[in-house]
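Support request, please re-run this one:
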Amino acid sequence: MAPRLLLLAATTGYSTRVFADQTRRLGYHLTLATDRCRVLDDPWGDHAFPVRFEQPEEAARQLAAAGPFDGILAVADRPAYVAALAAQKLGLRYHPPDAVAACHDKHLARERYRAAGLPTPDYFRVSLAEDPAAAACRAPYPCVLKPLGLSASRGVIRADGPEQFVSAFRRIAALLKEADILRLREAANSYIQVERFIPGVEYALEGVLTEGCLKVLAIFDKPDPLDGPFFEETIYVTPSRAPDAAQQALIAATEQGIRALGLWHGPIHAEMRRNQQGVWILEIAARPIGGLCAKALRFDPSMPLEELLLRHAVGQDVAAARLADPASGVMMIPIRKAGIYQGVDGVDRAARIAGEVIVTAKEGQELRPLPEGASYLGFIFARGASPLEVERLLRAAHAELRFEIAATLPVVGRTPR
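Re-run finished. Output below.
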């Protein structure tokens, strides 16, 4: 009989449909659980099981009652915690709930890294109710202020002195009071983490755990410097051009971080920096790489990352997986200015250079750059004979794109007659 798979994902997530389509292509019986509206009758046309990620225990109970399943997979941070709770109830192999919770809380993760002896910057946690000027007096400069529960560099700001600290604090506090974040009802979003800035080169590691054993799928270089004041990621290229010893150090640090967090079975995505003092874990997430970036990876002979993770979720052995391309990469197209998206020119020219360009912005969509923004204009994918060639193709393709973004007009009230 075909395996029964429970897939948890955000309704509006970039990769939700990709994973769902791959599940069906494999012939698995799919139960898709998303945060879609539970009142309307299948508004997204995806036949998803509606759950509330802000009520994880109740969501897990509902999903467990819909079982049994042969495997479980989550493709974003908040769904991963519900998946961990559901897996525990269903008796499925997955990451433990407390480990997934630690991944999603930057303060708790730092506490565990420090307890495990991993290199850890000076850090402390500040309540939004505290006086930012007083907190600024305690900060190690340069420092980085981070919302505890947000991801993809949203709300992350560097401060080089007290004045910048106070400005950054107030900007993050305003972001955390926006409706889309308050709706999450996460206690972590009442705090800001302050950490000493870690200089160095940044990397990402994509992997999958099988009962605690890490299979490294790819190590990505991030060739664009990420020194602030904001930390918008753009280009990922694999294989890494770092020396073999440096790559082994990245893997060893990731394995230490995994043990410190208590992760056990399923996908992981790690972000880290390397400098003369060693490797510093920025975060390890209990999910695959975000957005559509998974399309940058395929495995012999032509297996996409989504398929590999789905096969792993239902118990298949993926230990022999090897990257199919000599080099590959993705560029997350940054939003350079706020406004209303009107359109783009040059997509065909860019695609002829790089191979594939996907514009995810929709006409009429309001765009916000980091640190407030939570999306990209789209993604560029390239494959080549070397990492250097892939990076060149991504930059050349991006140079062909011309985005039309109209200014957002202020809302002016009517003058009383």
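Confidence is low (pLDDT under 50) at residues 37-46. Residues 244-261 form the longest helix (18 residues).
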